Amino acid sequence: MLALAWKNLIRRPLRTLLTVTGLAVALALLVSIISFGEGYQRGLRRELDAMGMQMMLVPLGCPYDAAARVLKGRSLDSSLPESALDAARSDPDVALAAPIFAATMPRPAEGRTDLWVGVDETAQRMRPWWKLTAGSSFFQGEDSVLLGSEAAATELRKPGDRFYSPETGRSFRVCGVLERSGTSDDSQFFVPLATAQAMFKQPGRLTGIAIRLKDPARLKDASDRLQQVKGAQVVTVTEMIGVFLNLVGAARALIMAIAVITITISALSVFNTIMAGALERGREIGILRAIGFSRTDIFRLVAVESLALSLLGGALGTILAVIAGGMVESLARSYLPLASEVNLPPLTLSAVMQCLLLVLIVGLTAGCYPAYHASRQSPAQALRGD
Amino acid sequence: MIGQGSIVRAENLRKIYRRGAEDVVAVDNVSFEVAPGEFLAIVGPSGAGKSTLLQLIGVMDNPTSGKMSIAGSEVSGLSDAARTRLRRETIGFVFQHFGLLPTLTVAENIGLPLLLSRERSRDRVEFLLERVGLAHRRNHRPAELSGGEMQRVAIARALVNQPRFLLADEPTGNLDSVNSAAILRLFQELRQDGLTIIAVTHNEEFARSADRRLTLRDGKVVS
Questions:
Q1: pLDDT at A345 (0 to 100)
Q2: Is B116 in contact with A297 (Cβ distance < 8 A)?
Q3: Which of A368, A323, A363 is nearest to A346 (CA)?
Q4: Which of A202, A304, B72, B81 has a C-alpha 20 to 30 A away from that of B33?
């Protein structure tokens, strides 16, 4: 029966190919979206958990945008006074307060923008994933620069090399290079806090402070107190994760709606292909009925054609998702406020299973009516002329 | 009175179709029987009711009134599933347009009814390929065959389930005289092997070779 169904499908190869391709593209889109969503949530939680911080102190404005920018080392229009750091460090519940001054440096000649981040010695404690390559050390003076792995590779620098920044007219000594961590740190230039503030002419200013508490259960009390710091506001990590996941959820819902429309169109295409095939083969089906195929046999034959077509689309869609998954991931990242830099698997087993299940449902649904219609064909149809 | 040992037995068969507001009597009070091993030719002008009668004998449709029995079983009022089973197990169909599936090879077309059977006998297909003289064409597709060869494939397919009788609809209707003669010879051989054959035909030579002819006009048996 399967062989017979398959031969019917390849009778019109172009029509079958177009239908399968349409279904495959829709499926690939859906698999990629579901996979990325799952991977993104996991990566985001892993990265924020690894920092071991419970809150951030950021300038007044949109607290979540500020937190996202500070975490990813993007510059901010507004900033905090350095006195906020003193307030945070003097709070009895705060175990660690890590200041950050982040700014972007356009490099039009190279066609890129560098991210410079001013930190102090607390940065190492706040970023447990930092590992220094051989011959590296932390800052050893105001002219030290610690390069992320990608930044070092781009600038062709290793520990001990000199590094000149023509945009600021400053010369640095590369004190160290970080091993690749899969985070946004890989592409950044880390310098002492005061150096960064001086480079960008913002002495005494900060773009954010990451805060780790002695006891995470004291979050509310500490948050209430730090909320009183002038010009600053508190964003807890829980709030950030919640808001970011909502934002991601909204983006996913939009793309999912597009995918669902595409799947619906594909289902109609499957329906059209199978229905057209059943109508074209009216007399053949009549002959099958005459020689002893029951209505159930005919229904099964046409339904198998629909399922085979859909499963073929599903298989091709999964392959496409593997190939194009990276592209969807890059696209999604560019629109997300806090995209985890941890490598995300482009495909997850659960996404593939969900989509294959959907394909089965699409195949069965789209094939149902054509199969029913074909099964009602009279055997007397076999006696009719052309 | 109609005999009990008949393969096909029809008694006062009537089939009325509704066409718009009008009733059309396609088969009108037809009675006949076909004995085992008999070769019956159904003849008559176009519109005489031959195709409708063929549908009734082939258990593709139920009569409006009257009785029809196939191989001793009354078929009037049978469910669709029961009629399908009867067609599969008792009747071998040969169509004017051959009715071969273009995507299947000669051997696959012949073995098509066996798809539904638990016994998938490749030997039976090979035997029939030899029987109709197309063993050398087993892997060809219908489009690569002549009309006569296609009809021989169709006859082999009709025989694959070892039916009680062959029901043929204008088996030479789409063939030239040479191929018609070859098909007629094949039918005569099958007849000599003891197979019961009922054929609707316009071919006078074909009808002459039958044991008996049933002539229809305006839905009635006239001779």
A1: 53
A2: yes
A3: A323
A4: B81
